Amino acid sequence: MKKLILVTLVLCLAAQFWLFADGESYTQVDGASRIITAYKNQKTGELPDLSMAIRLLDSSDTEFVEDGKDINLPVDARGSYYKAFSWVFSGNAFGAVTLTFSFARMSLNGANTNNQTEYIPYKVKMVYSPSKVGNSTIQMNTASTAQAYMTNSFTGTTYRMYYADSISNGAVSSVETSGGESPASNYGNAFSVALSYNMSSNTKVQDADAQDKKQEYINKVTQNNHANVCDYWNRSGTAYVQLLINNDRTWSTNSSIKAKVGEYRANVTVGVTVQ
Q1: What is the pLDDT of residues 168-202, one digit of tens each?
Q2: Looking at the domain assignment, is residue 206 inside a domain?
Q3: Is residue 78 part of a domain?
Q4: How many domains is the chain built from?
Q5: What is the spatial distance between Cα 239 and Cα 182, in angstroms, rounded to a whole number?
Q6: Which residues, at least 6 apart from 163, have a Cβ–Cβ distance to it below 8 Å?
């Protein structure tokens, strides 16, 4: 099955480790790169184009400016989860879509190094928010029991869409929920988190007589063996980061390793795959 990949942007996690005094404040360092592209697939007839976009917001819920910026991690991220950034993923794909966050090693000045005193271990926790179609919040990870529907006549036939979304591969509904942590081990290495969304799996599609028409809809609005488009949705969530390092710069996972003083950086690349 063909994969259509959308690489959206690159941001940078930054942490400055000097004296590690409690309550120490850090100066934000600008200069992260931001790469934005979009994928659209032209369909003939009355079908809308397949369209997707993503926005990233900082810890104060402010969208990144055009030239990007570093995500500065304060002392609060040592040993506990800190809200690093949030995502708002929008589009109209009805089938499986994977949103991937690739986290590089967090190393001194962002250098490529295998010296354990020049990088620090960390982990992330991905927390999703309920999806929306239009202005309506919809159910997550359960078959739709919605009473309200949206009418859709992309194919010339009117369908009643009772939307419900699904997300898998480790994201959780709150930061207090167990699970959703990546990586499971080897915290100092690069890792990726792939969040798989699928609107078609839980959405109910009917006609005016309440007859099941999901397969008919999929057959009429199809590309790569899945229904190509539906009504416009928004999917959002937050990435929390925990630095696995102590006040004295020793790793909390191995106290015999002590990181050098300085600024540590890790690029995060965000991408989308449509299958």
Answers
A1: 877 999 999 988 899 989 999 999 999 999 999 99
A2: no
A3: yes
A4: 1
A5: 11
A6: 133, 136, 138, 144, 146, 150, 199, 203, 230, 231, 233
Query: Mapping DSSP to helix (H, G, I), strand (E, B) and coil, where does residue 39 land?
Result: coil
220: DSSP letter: H
How far is 133 from 152, CA to CA, in rounded Å?
A: 13
Residue 85's identity, in one-letter code, is: F
Q: Assess contact for 247 and 75: CB atoms under 8 A.
A: no
Condensed to tens digits (0 to 9), the pLDDT of residues 125-174 reads 999 999 999 989 999 999 999 999 999 998 889 999 999 999 987 799 99
Residue 254 placed within a domain:
yes
CA distance 137 to 163: 9
Whether the Cβ atoms of residue 157 and residue 151 lie closer than 8 Å to each other: no
| DSSP string of 112-146, one letter each residue | ----GGGEE-EEEEEEE---EETTEE-EESS----
10 CB neighbour count, 10 Å cutoff: 17
- Reading the block at residue 241, the tokens are 């980061």
Place of tokens 């708002």: 88
Q: Which two tokens stand for residue 65?
A: 């400016």
Both structure tokens of 148: 């309200």
State which residues form the domain around 67: 52-142+164-194+229-274
Does a structural domain hold residue 267?
A: yes
CA distance 85 to 264: 17
The one-letter amino acid at 235: R
**Is residue 70 over pLDDT 70?**
yes
Query: Any bridge partners for residue 159, and if so which?
Result: 152
Per-residue model confidence as pLDDT tens digits over 9-56: 567 877 776 533 333 332 233 333 444 444 445 444 467 888 888 888
| Cβ atoms within 10 Å, residue 71 | 25
